[in-house]
Amino acid sequence: MAKADKQAEKPVPSHVGIIMDGNGRWAQSRGLPRVAGHRAGTKNIRRVLEAAVDLGIKALTVYAFSTENWGRPRPEVMHLMRLISDGIRDELDELDARGVQIRHSGRMAGVSDYLQKQIRGAVERTKNNDTIILNVAFNYGGRAEIVDAIKHIVQEGIPADEVTEEVISRYLYTAGMPDPDLIIRTGGEYRLSNFLIWQAAYAEYYATPTFWPDFDAAELQRAIAVYQGRERRFGLIK
Ligand code: FPP
User: Which of 205, 204, 210 is nearest to 186 (CA)?
Assistant: First the structure.
C-alpha cells in the first residue's frame, strides 16, 4: 500500500497551515541571490499542493507575505509582489481546472490596483471549486486580522453581549473554513510569527529544519505522520 494510502486510514488534518520559511537561506547556501529562493519557494507551492490533495487534505493556508514583510529591502518586496502576480497569471488556469478554490487572507491596502484585481479575479473565478482550498495569506497579520474583524463587528452594530468566539470567527478572513489542525513551519525556527493566531489556538505544531524549497511530498507525509501520532485534547483530560 502506498504511504499516502496508508496515512489516509488515520485522521488526516482537514486544514494545514504552512509558514514557508528558509527561502533566503536556501538560496544563500547555493550562492544564489535571496530572490532565487523565493522563486524556488513559489514553485514548491504547487508540489506541496498536489501532495496535499493526494493525502486528502481539504485546505492549505500558505503564509506568502506578512504585514511585517513590507519592512524588507524594497527590491525584495517588489520581487515578492511580482512572484505572486506572475504566479496567478501562470497558474490560474491549471489550478481552476484541477478544482482548486483560491482564497485570500489579508489586507488589500498597500497592494497595487493591478494585483488586487488579479487576486479578486482568482478568488471569484474559483469560488465554487471543491477539490482543495488554497488560502494565500498575503499582506496578512494575525493581529491585523483580529482588528479588522472587531472593526466590522462594531460597524455592523452587533451588541457586545452577542459577541462570541463563533461571531469573531465569522468575521475573520478565514470565515467558513475549518480551523487549522496542523501548522507546519519550515526553516528551523519555532515561532508563529503572527500567523493564524486566532484560528490555530488548538492546532498541532510541527517544525522542521528543511528550507521551504526543499520541503517535498515525503516531508509533508512525515509531518502528517507526526500529527497522527499526537493526542489532541483541546484542553480536556484523557
Ligand atoms: C520566508 O523565507 C518566505 C517568505 C517571506 C516569502 C514566501 C513567499 C513565497 C514562497 C511566494 C508565494 C507565492 C505565491 C504565488 C503564493 P525567508 O526569506 O524569511 O527566508 P530566510 O529565513 O532564509 O531568510
Answer: 210
Per-residue confidence (pLDDT) for residue 231, from 0 to 100: 82
**15: in domain:** yes
CA-derived radius of gyration, the chain: 18
For residue range 93-152, list pLDDT tens digits in order: 999 999 999 999 999 999 999 999 999 999 999 999 999 999 999 999 999 999 999 999
Mean pLDDT, rounded, for 196-202: 97
Of 18, 19, 23, 77, best ligand 1 pocket probe by most atoms within 8 Å of the beta carbon:
23
| Cα–ligand 1 centroid distance for 236 (angstroms) | 36
Q: At 50, which CATH number?
A: 3.40.1180.10
C-alpha cell at 238: 484523557
Nearest protein CA to atom 6 of ligand 1, as residue: 64
Where is 41: in which H helix or E strand? Answer: helix 34-55
Residue-number span of the structural domain to which 146 is assigned: 11-227
Evaluate whether residue 2 is within a structural domain.
no
Q: How many domains does the chain have?
A: 1
